[in-house]
Design brief:
Helix content: over 70%
Strand content: under 5%
Strand order of the largest sheet: 1-2
Structural class: mainly alpha
Number of strands: 2
Largest sheet: 2 strands, antiparallel
Number of helices: 9
Low-confidence stretches: 1-7, 10-22, 44-49, 199-207
């Protein structure tokens, strides 16, 4: 037993001769490297810590926010798509304005509907920019505003639940604002998206 465990010079010479006599092909070496990489990845995945309950709950909570923003104004969304279908059918009738005019009207409506919810936070951020104290970078942007933005970007990028919830909340607010415009609710002095111009009660009765 002891003699078998000792690697003699003759044994080493025989091993070298065997390696030269039966060389490993490049394909075999690539397969062996792939197997080692797979084992390493599997080991790293098994050693990785489980996600915290907060991380697991962030996505369902975010989806619930988005779904809730749609369900609140579900009658208005339903009425809008029905009216859109009726308008398309009327414009495609003989003597109607045609599909091109319909697409142009829908594109203009979409631009107006999307621009208002997007410009509102931009204007709010500009107000925060002008209200930030402290010295200004290049005489234009306050350093405190730059630091605040850097902190927000870091938090959203590094803390996964916060980033997920922030993105979900932003989408929910966007859809909720559009739905509010479709329902003619709130302060709609410049943002009434109802195609027929009816009041919310009439929209709900026809939905």
């Amino acid at each position: 037993m002891f003699l078998r465990s000792v690697k003699t010079p003759l044994h080493h010479t025989c091993s070298i001769a065997t390696a030269h006599a039966y060389p490993v092909s490049s394909r075999s070496r690539a397969r062996l490297r792939a197997e080692r990489d797979d084992k390493s990845e599997a080991r790293a995945y098994s050693d990785a810590p489980d996600e915290s309950p907060l991380v697991k709950a962030a996505l369902p909570v975010g989806l619930a926010l988005v779904a809730g923003s749609l369900l609140i104004h579900a009658p208005a969304w339903s009425a809008f798509f029905n009216e859109l279908a009726d308008m398309k059918a009327a414009m495609l009738l003989p003597g109607g304005q045609g599909l091109e005019e319909y697409n142009a009207a829908v594109n203009f409506f979409t631009l107006f509907a999307v621009a208002h919810p997007l410009l509102t936070p931009v204007l709010w951020i500009s107000e925060v920019l002008h209200a930030c104290p402290g010295p200004k970078l290049g005489g234009l942007v306050p350093l405190s505003f730059v630091a605040l933005n850097a902190l927000a970007i870091y938090v959203l990028g590094q803390i996964k639940p916060v980033g997920t919830l922030a993105a979900s909340a932003a989408l929910a607010l966007f859809l909720g604002t559009v739905g509010q415009g479709l329902a003619s609710e709130g302060n709609m002095a410049g943002y009434n998206l109802a195609l027929n111009g009816e009041t919310p009660s009439v929209v709900r009765e026809n939905a």
